[in-house]
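Known limitations

Files may contain more than one protein. Parsers should not assume a single record per file. Below, a two-record file is shown to illustrate correct handling: read the sequence, read the token line, then continue until end of file.
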Amino acid sequence: MQFFDDSLLPENQQPLVIQVAPYGPQWDASDSDDIAVSMDDQVQKAVDCWNAGATVLHVHVREEDGKGSKHLSKFNEMLARLREAVPKMILQVGGSISFAPEDDGQAAKWMTDDTRHMLADLNPRPDQVTIAINTNQMNVMELMTEADVAGTSLTNPALQAAYTDMIVPSNPSWHVEHLKRLTASGIQPHFMLGNVSQLETVERLIRRGVYMGPLILNYVAIGGGFAGLNPADMMEFVRRTPDGAVLTLETLNRHIYPMNTMAIAMGMHVRVGIEDTLFGPTGERMTSVQQIEMMVHIARELNRDVASGDEAHRIYKIGETYRSTEETLARIGFAPNRAQGQRGVPMRVAA
């Protein structure tokens, strides 16, 4: 991303899109009063987040017993209810489905490749499904402190061990096929990237014609195989992200407040919610709605507008499709592919 002399002035920035992850599948239902269990309560949670200022909803679903659902029929039911309850909210289904262990000591793992491919068949279809690129460690315990898990199920050593060893499976044969299925179904992939090497892989997929469409992504700074908390690493990722991409910051625990403040100031977008933290900036419990309200407050203090539902759809380029590799490169802001025999850096020539 390029920064001009006036890029940090709020009147030159896109309105802030707030992404919220209010369902927290890694938590036991007893871990927080803010965890919705019944279908009615899960839908109401989305309404409350919308009313607070969030315009992108990261969707997971719980069964009636409080455990994370692995049944696509429950996702279909949830999506249908959400389309009625929050019609202008961008619905983003978590590509992991539910990675939570079903029993103590069981592995925390994502569903099978075939099951995850079925997300392309959700009906009604969501606006987005998240996708990781390249198989990666996802040790969510690495940056957790005793205070972060106090009073929750994650004090259980068996669960800690399960989440410590969790891996995100996304080998090339899987993510190439998944991108094809999502785009064929009219679902926008939302890339969840934890380092520059993963961004480079996405660029190669685009240059080779595997993916044609908008580049909407999260910089995932959760440690344990993904990016850590050093702002210098975040700035390098920002620098390497092309100007036509849409970049959201995602981190965890109390770090979401200082890092999201930096993101808001720089014109990026933010993610909050109890999937990322149960706590506020001083260690007090904070609901997803309260976290959204804090992001709205910070944006207003910086005089940056908060996106409406229509504005979020425009910024996220929902429904946009590109017809060629060249169009995709141009709209995202990458240099064109090298023509045979061409030397030097390929440049776009003004018409």
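...continuing to the second record:
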Amino acid sequence: MKATHKRLRMLGIILVGVGMAVFLAGCGNPMVLDPKGQIADIQKEMIWISIILCAIIIVPVLGIWIYISVRYRDKPDNKAPYEPNWSHSTKLEVIWWGIPIIVVGVLGYFTVVATYDLIKPPKATANVEPLTIEVTSMDWKWLFQYPDQDIATVNYLNIPENTPIQFVLTSNTAMNSFWVPQLGGMMYTMPGMAMRLWLQAEGPGEYLGMGANFSGSEFAKMHFKVKSMPQNEFDAWVAKSQDEPAKLTRETYAKLAVKGTVPIQTFGQNEPTLFASIVVKNGGHHGISIRGSDPVKSNQQSSGVKSEAETKEVSGSQQPEQNQ
């Protein structure tokens, strides 16, 4: 009987090992661990710091658990009575409460420092004028507006390398999440809100972008390509896009907003107040006015939603204020 149990345990260990080997063989380098920008680098560091600090607790606990399970396991021929002797140890209490408290404190410190770095433009390119892109998630597509270039795209993004990109994000339907893993973390897109996210690519390349929040039957198709290019190539692409005959008007947007998937599109002209109207229409009763780099609160107090005629455009040089 003992020999049979031993063989079964060995077989179980072998099967688990083979299963893990097969599972891990299909895993390439995770995109979040292959950063292509300063912001993504910060987040990669935070991932490794979190893994190391958690391992300080998890590895010893699992090791002790395995040791105790094996050393003090009950055996079929064990005749000893079960008579536990409960006792208190102040030293052990300090160890198993003190270490996690220290780990959480250290992790919290690094998290706060990184969070404040991530809500601002990257320090390395602080002297570079940022590019603003207004992002609207829909069922099931992405609309990207370049207000300062007066163009718009659907389901693809072009950005200049080594330039801070300020994304101002909202949703026209269900809440979603905008994510380009190799350039930085994700940010929710929510109806009636204009959220902000800074990203930056350090060199030319193509990166996968996606919607990371389930939003319906075609959710899996809400992905897009982000292409980073030198500034001169970006300027040439902007000039070419401005010559596109298609215009992003309110009528065009109404057709885009219908549920369904669409191919990539480029619009040679962008309705300047469209993004602000999307935010207000979906509950953003803040009297906001959006132009250039940011959502800002109106200087005038209003208890209701402003009309389009009352909505004023503000320059991209004004400091953004996050909607509350």
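Parsers that stop after the first record will miss the second one. For reference, the second record is described as follows. DSSP finds six helices and 15 strands in the chain.
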